[in-house]
Design brief:
The chain is an alpha+beta fold. It has 14 helices and 14 strands. The relative contact order is 0.09.
């Protein structure tokens, strides 16, 4: 069944340019209608009398973690898949080949491997005419805070900028820039700013979160002014040790003096009851971190199992589970690890608590 949603203009430009570049190595590609539950499109690549059919995912990839996300998506589909990108560096091209991910880009780089066909082209320079706007404000640190609150509450997109800025803890100007960027990309439609194609935004936010936002969620400079110098060392690793292994089980977080929430493995355990938590992740408002560390008698320890991160949003917690972060953040926390068991639990969180909210 053909999908009723066509490619967005920037996706169509990238796909057309990549197929045009493919002709330089003697292959011809044609676009077919996107099929239901496939990523972005479907193409047929003609190699003489042979036709190779792929479902296509059109993505900008500049880090290995993005390739890993593509591989998970392709493995789930379990059909011939093709990554189409504006540009893939020689390093990432080699990584794609190692992971078995076939790709083409707008510069003419390609990896195609099928019966009677084996092509591997790398080192072609980026095509500036088809690059996506690198100033996409939704991908900045502040922009990701805005996108997070919108994904947690899509109806918020229609609210005044001041309301969005309050919930995200950012300036009004940042909200305007992010809204404009999302409108240009086709994710906000109409005068009521209806948020659409949210599944892709969730994927992008999850990939960017550990490198763009999560790594900046602890600045111990203010802690050093109030407690011992030992804690100051934690600004590098954000890790602490508790007095006992189960100290967190007796701790009430969402109360006036903390307003903190469990994230990561504890949130996942509460949401799925699937795996015993190992790492204790706590999101605490900046002004309460020092008090929380002192009250819980936590000590800085690079090998500690307690991770303290700054809470970066201002909207209230869900009334039915006041002690954990929104499911989207629990999902992103797990996906940010290298533990395949956490990825398995993350998939459960997505299926049980996120999939029905995103298109």
């Amino acid at each position: 069944m053909a999908d009723e949603h066509p490619l967005k203009p920037d996706e169509q430009i990238i796909l057309n340019a990549a197929l045009t570049a493919l002709e330089d190595i003697g292959l011809h590609g044609t676009v077919m209608a996107r099929l239901h539950n496939t990523p972005d499109a479907a193409v047929t690549i003609h190699n003489g009398k042979t036709e190779l059919r792929y479902v296509v995912a059109i993505k900008t990839v500049d880090r290995r973690i993005m390739i890993d996300a593509v591989k998970r998506e392709f493995d789930y589909l379990n059909v011939p898949c093709l990554l189409v990108a504006p540009h893939i560096t020689a390093e990432l091209a080699e990584y794609c080949r190692e992971q078995g991910i076939q790709f083409i880009d707008t510069a003419g780089n390609a990896y195609l491997k099928a019966e009677g066909l084996h092509i591997f082209v790398t080192g072609q320079k980026r095509n500036m005419l088809t690059m996506r706007d690198q100033t996409d404000r939704a991908a900045t640190t502040a922009g990701m805070r805005v996108l997070f609150v919108l994904l947690c509450n899509p109806k918020l997109a229609a609210e005044p900028y001041r309301t969005i800025a309050r919930d995200a803890g950012v300036a009004l100007g940042t909200v305007k820039q992010v809204i404009t960027a999302l409108q240009k990309r086709g994710h906000l439609l109409g005068p009521d700013r209806r948020l659409v194609n949210t599944k892709r935004l969730v994927e992008e936010w999850t990939i960017n979160y550990p490198l763009q936002l999560r790594c900046k969620l602890f600045d111990a400079n203010y802690v050093d002014r109030t407690i011992t110098g030992n804690v100051y060392n934690a600004h590098i690793m954000r890790r602490f040790a508790g007095q006992t292994d189960d100290w967190w089980k007796k701790t009430e977080l969402y109360m006036p003096k903390y307003h903190a929430l469990w994230g990561g493995e504890i949130a996942a355990d509460i949401l799925t009851n699937y795996r015993k938590p190992g790492l204790v992740t706590v999101y605490v408002p900046e002004e309460n971190i020092a008090k929380f560390i002192i009250d819980q008698r936590l000590c800085a320890d690079k090998n500690g199992t307690v991770e303290i991160l700054q809470k970066f949003w201002n909207f209230g917690a869900p009334t039915d589970r006041d002690n954990i972060v929104p499911p989207l953040l629990a999902y992103a926390d797990l996906m940010a690890t290298q533990d395949p068991r956490n990825h398995e639990v993350a998939k459960l969180i997505y299926e049980q608590h996120l999939a029905h909210d995103y298109d």
